[in-house]
Amino acid sequence: MKKKEIVLKGIPASPGIVTGKAFLYGREQYTITKRLIREDHVAGEIKRFKEALIQTKNEILEIKKRISDEMGAEHGQIFSAHLLVIDDSMLIEEVISRMKKEKMSIEYVFQDVLRRYIKVFSEMDDEYLKERISDINDVGRRILRNLIGAKEDVLANLKEKVIVVAYDLSPSDTATMHKRNVSGFATDIGGRTSHTAIMAKSLEIPAVVGLEVLTKKVTSGDTVIIDGTHGIVVVNPSARTMKKYDVDREKLIEFEKHLLELKNLPCVTLDGRKIELSANIEVPEDVPSVMAHGAEGIGLYRTEFFYMNRKDLPSEEEQFRAYSAVAKKMKPSPVVIRTMDLGGDKFLSQLDVPQQMNPFLGWRAIRFCLARPDVFKAQLRAILRASAHGKLRIMYPMISGLGELRQANILLEESKKELKKEGLPFDDDIEVGAMIEVPSAALTSDILAKEADFFSIGTNDLIQYSLAVDRVNEKIAYLYEPTHPAILRLIKNVVDNGHRAGIWVGMCGEMAGDIIMTIILLGLGLDEFSTSPIATPEIKRVIRAVTMSQAREIADEALTLLTGKDVEIFAKKKIKELVPEMAAEID
Ligand code: PEP
Ligand code: MG
Q1: Any idea which ligand is nearest the CA of 194?
Q2: Tens digits of per-residue pLDDT, 479-533?
Q3: CB of 530 closer than 6 angstroms to any ligand 1 atom
Q4: What are the Cα distances from residue 448, in Å, to 403, 406, 435?
Q5: CATH number of the domain bearing residue 529
Q6: Which ligand 1 atom lies nearest to the CA of residue 341?
Q7: Are residue 329 and residue 465 in the same domain, yes or no?
Q8: What beta strand segments (E) does 376-524 contain?
Q9: Which of 122, 148, 174 is the last residue in one of the domains?
Q10: 88-103 pLDDT per residue, tens
Q11: Structural domain containing residue 90
Q12: 110 and 195, same structural domain?
């Protein structure tokens, strides 16, 4: 029987339309075959088991932290029950003693003991204990995965092209994905500017997040359509729906092709004002996409991905190689390297960051770097050395006041001195800028502007901090309004203060790639737009369609409006009037 079509609306995370087979991620089962072991392998098997338990425990602690941060402590508590399963000494001892006695591989014995536990629990009358079955199952699956070394690289080893459907995908999950085998993804949780969404854009695959119940409606193998432009997912589409989306996809591809024709045209307004159009990258492999989409430089290189998905810290040498490769490829265009911005929803396995109640407000980014000058200076030295090979700029994330900017600069000066002493070349005049993503920095941008060479507004964080709306929480996504009057005022303040001090002001948050905002931002005086590479052609299209006086007038009017909704309606109306070919992209 044909399954019923289900249409779900979520949050658009990365544009494009794709149809394919669903792959439900995170529920894999393992088949373990019976394997006898020799007496002299017993100690090794115990060691393997203990290591797998530790590894699993660490994984669960990390998930618990993430879920607590994103969904609230009560959801995180689910994982406390998981931890109890791992710490269950009876279970551990039973596995070890049976393995010693039966001389079977540890994974075989473990699986067997686990099955028995589940059977016993399911026969109990106690509802609470019955509920523990899914915890035991989940933890058991994780331990088995670590025992057999299957690791989390399921996503990297997919055999066919699929659409990944998951409750959540961590930035490290998306980092292991490759568009060779993942043609799109959709998740139950997450917001528009979560790093998972940002990664989807950098992979250039359609994605929808915040679908809440999707994983309950899909089984692996179902046909799904992901419309990342409008935030829609269709499960088991009817023939009619398939046809409609096929037509839409063709139209979208045609439109994108048309936009790419602008690739070699300058990014100037109708009256000749040149605007810098740059792109954001996560890894050096993103550079070809920057070029292919006609961006003129890199306005944000998010280096923290270097520190994720690995057990050791990247050395200065390794970082130097990556940064100089990017510098050389982009030369003579500029590349803004943002020093690492770990924390928030970007975790790392190596550095010992304690659990925090409010990770986005916690020990992260520049705060972390200033506390760990050894780690920070290795990065600063690597960037400085790479600056001998192209036009690099340094940018500090999460600056909240002048003190931090000064402290970071002291470490930068120290690094320069060291390199001079060692006779290593670097660009002594390298520009050093501050990201403006904390309200206190936006409000004191007049002070910061005197000691920075440029500003880049990080709206992803600036919006979440100013409006007190967690950027990764789909439940409050409706409050995450780039058009909010508070945000427009903060941006205006930053641009005006920057210009008064004679420095340029760019924007590298997702807002810079949102065509609804382009004319207003232009009118507010922004000098540089840095967006995901795929968004650059659209932004260029809009900029080339207006004059600066039109943009200023529109920005001035937007600043008089009272609510985010009013600004949004007004901005949409204006863009439809001035760039009618964009109309389909907006609704
Ligand atoms: C931002 O906050 O707008 C930004 C660009 O930084 P990230 O998204 O990496 O936090
Ligand atoms: Mg940020």
Answers
A1: 1
A2: 999 999 999 999 999 999 999 999 999 999 999 999 999 999 999 999 999 999 9
A3: no
A4: 10, 10, 10
A5: 3.20.20.60
A6: 9
A7: yes
A8: 391-396, 431-436, 454-457, 504-507
A9: 148
A10: 888 888 999 999 999 9
A11: 39-148
A12: no
